[in-house]
Amino acid sequence: MKTLRILAPVAIAATLALGATACGSSPSPASSTPSQSFAAGTTMSKIQQRGKLIVGVKFDQPMFGVKNPVTGQMEGLDIELAKRIAKDLTGSEDNIEYVEAVTANREAFLQQNKVDLILASYAVTDERKKVVAFAGPYLESGVSIMVRKDESSISTKNDLNGKPVCTTTGARAAQLLPALAPQAKLTLFGTYSECAQALKQKRVDAVVTNESLLLGLIEQNKDDFKIVGDYLATEEYAIGSAKGDTAWHDYLDGFLKKIADNGEWKAAYDSTIGAVRPADITAPHITL
To answer: Quick check: 32 and 90 in contact, CB under 8 A?
Structure first.
């Protein structure tokens, strides 16, 4: 399990100033004032007492959660939303620890209390609702097909039959494909970056997942891939939290409503997905 901790500059400076006596100790969180206080024992109060938000994110998903190889910083829509939650609860967006959450381990991380929440291109399904409390949604999109730029034999779901098609283990697309293209040869990897590599190397002929995720892969491989055909299905992305923690779920729903109303959701979208595909878009209605 990979983690990436982001600390405010003032906290780093203070830690360095302590010299050898501070070796081995945890850096202090940024000193700032939260927007509100919460009842003792709630997840919100525990995060405030801890001084940081611990969030499960993707590390290799362009436009949602990706670690910039040059700066080492985390980037994407999910990251922007996580920063805003951290700021709302602790007073600083820098009071945050990122834990890499691939598609297959998101539910386990919540059940094992390894993270406070999951913001990792998390599509809502009836099966996942049985074990996860979803807040939102914060994004609506559709499941699409990505192929190599020189591919001309695939343009619809029927064209996937008989061909090797990639998605990730535990992804909603993996559940949809057996019904949409029963004869497709399903190939599962842990990450979509592995699917993209397999497509580039012609080990598979298509990658199927949410269009916004595919746009991120295309942004990194502009000369290699394209999206074809209509949506195979629509889906919603939401924040995942532990089942049964009603107060935490309600806080997250309320937070999403707040940033939809004050324009912060649009700013987060425009700086990430909107930078690749500009759109006059509004935040989806909170229904979960």
So the answer is: yes
